[in-house]
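Chapter review: from sequence to fold.
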Amino acid sequence: RLAPNADLISLITKAAKSMKITGGIRFLPLFGESGSGKSSASRELSTHMPDVVCHELSRDEIESRDSLIEKIKLTHESEPQKLLVFVIDQYEENVQGREKIPTQFVESLSLLDRGELRSIPAVFIWLTTSLEFRKMLVDATSRNQRILLDKSFQIKGPEKSEWPAIIEETFSFHNSDTPLSDYGLIRGDLIE
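The token string follows.
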């Protein structure tokens, strides 16, 4: 989905303003059902916000504090004037010991928030399809609540009536502005 998510953009804008005043890192556990547009909305932030650069974190960057620090520093060096947004896309679904992940990761963010990276504006967005896991992430911020952007942020998928326009826009974008009608499809076919 290429359409901007106004609520997410507003929250990231609010975070950027806050970090300009107080510095530090911000963290957003983001819930949404499968297919709701969490990944697209997060990755598209840099498309809709020119002052943002967005990257998805690798498994190594999530698990290793040194790798995470290196990623943050390298990204900041290449884009020094931009707000850094790092996305963790449902990482917990693919690992053993998922109950330990929130505490470990948030504790690492808290240390970075108080340490050498305090002056680098960075937002970490953890995408999840589990309300239980989101609660675990929120609870893990209890010792450093300042980093938590929103404890109940959620992305809901578009209404079914919006699907044809989204399909047309996405298809056109990925096919050199060629409309669906050039392939024998009309809007009525999409509504069925």
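Two observations follow directly from the output. Residues 19 and 40 are 24 Å apart (CA to CA). The first strand starts at residue 25 and ends at 31.
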